[in-house]
User: Fold these one by one.
Assistant:
Number 1:
Amino acid sequence: MRSTVPFDPRHSRAPELTFVGRLGHAAIERYQRGLALLATLGAAVLAFRTPGVAAGRVVRRVLLLQIFYTGFQAVSLIGTIGVLLGATIVIQTELMVPSADSALIGKVLIAVVLRELAPLITAIVVAGRSGTAIATELGNMKVSSEILALTSLGIDPPRFIVLPRLLASIASVLVLMVYFAAISLVGTAAMGVAIANIGLGALQNGLSGAVTLYDLALFLVKGVGLGTIVGWLSCHYGLQVKSSPTEVPVMASRAVVMSLLGCVAYNTAATALFYWTVGPSLR
C-alpha cells in the first residue's frame, strides 16, 4: 500500500561520512583531478601527430597570434621590472658589502638574476598577465558552447585550442627570460658605474668568470618547464568551466594561483637539483 505521507527530502540524504570516509573521498577527488590535469597535457602533446596540412596552417597562425599577445606585448613590462631589480641588487650589494669587487658582484648577479629572478619573475608576469586571459577566454568559450561547436565540426580542441597556447607560453617565457636577464644586467652595469664605481670592463670580467655552461642548461630547463606550467594550467582550468558564466572568474583566479604555486615549486626543485648536481664543481 502506497504511503500518503508527504515526501521529506531529509530522509533521502546520504549518511554522513566518517573521518576515514572523508579521507578516502578527498583522495579519490585529488586522484581524479590529477588524471584530468595529465589528460589535458597529454591530449595537447598527442595533437602534434594529428594529420592535416590545412589544420597545421591554422594552428601555426593561432600560435603566432598567441606569441604576439603573450610575449611581444609583455616586453615593456618585463624591461621595466628587469631594470629596477638590477638596480636594486647593486644598491643592496653596495650597502651590505661596500668594498665588493667585480668578481663578487658578478657571482651575485649570475646567482640571483640569471639563475633565479629571470626565470621566476618572467613566469610570474606571464601567468598573471596572459594566464588570466587564457583561462578567461577558454572559460567563455565553454560557456557559449564554442568548444562543443568546434568538436561537432570535426575540429580537435586540444590541437586548435590547447597546443598553440601551450607552445606560445613556452616560447614567450624563454624569449622574455633572455630579455629580462639582458636588460637587468644592463641596468646593473649602469647603476654599478654610477654608485659602486665599478668599471664596465671589470664588471664584464666578473660576469664572464661567474657564468658556466651549466647555467645555460639550467636556463633552458627552467624556461621550458615554467612556460609549460603556465600554459598547461591556464588552459586546463579554463576548460574546467561547465555552463555558468560565474564560474569563469573563479577558474581564472584558480588558474593563476595554481600556476604561481607550480612555478615556485618547480623553480625551487630545479635550483636544488642544479646545486646538488654541479654544486661542488661550481665551488
Number 2:
Amino acid sequence: MIKLINLTKYFGSLKIIEKVNYEFRDGESVAIIGPSGCGKSTLLKLLIRLEEPTSGTVVINNLDVPKLSEEGLIGLRKNVGMIFQSSALFDSLNVYENVAFALREHTDLKEREITKIVKEKLRLVDLEGTDRLMPEELSGGMQKRVSIARALAFEPKIILYDEPTTGLDPITSVNIEDLMIKLNRELKVTAIVVTHVLQTVYRVANRIVMLHEGKFIEAGTPEQTQRTSDPVIRKFITGGL
C-alpha cells in the first residue's frame, strides 16, 4: 500500500504538489491524468525519492520513504519498478546487459542465475532472442518493452509508468497497453500510470485521479470519469469542448 500524507513539492516558489493526501491500494491500476507540466512525473519521482519532498511524506508498505537510509532506499527500489518516459536504456549496453544491470550491481547472484532471470523477463515482454541487440537497433516500442523487462528484474510488487505510450504509433501503443494489462492481471502488481493519453487511461486503469494545480481530484473508474460533471476533469477529457 502507498500513502501520500500532506505531500508537498515546490521548486523555488513554483508549486508542483501541495498537501496531497491519497492512498493507492494493493493490486489496483491507477492512472494519474493532467496536462503536460502539471507535476505528474515529479510525483512518481517523489515516490521512490528521485526527488525529495518539500514537506509531508510518502509511505510504502509501512516504510517512511524520505527517512530511509541509502541501504533502505536500495531495498525499496528493488520492490518498485520504474519505467521512464524515454525508456532510459544505457546506450552502450545491449538488451541483456540493460536488463541484467541492477542484478549485477545489487545482488550476489551468479551469472547463470542472472541469465535465467533476464531470459524469463524478456520472454514475459515478448522479446525473446533480442539479448544481443543494442538500443539503437530497437524500435521505440521494443525499447519500452526492454525497460519494462528491466523494471521486472526484482519481481517488484509496484510498477510506476511515466507516459508509457507517448510518442508511439497507435498499434505499438495498444501492444504496450496490452502488456501492462497482462502484468497487472498475471503478476498482481500495483500499477501507477502517469499519462495524458486518454486511450491508455481508459484501457489500463481501474481508477483515475487528476492532478490539477497541485491537488488531486478523484475521478473514479474509467466509466465514471467519462460521465463526470466535474468541470476541470470534463474540460481535460473533452479538450475544452
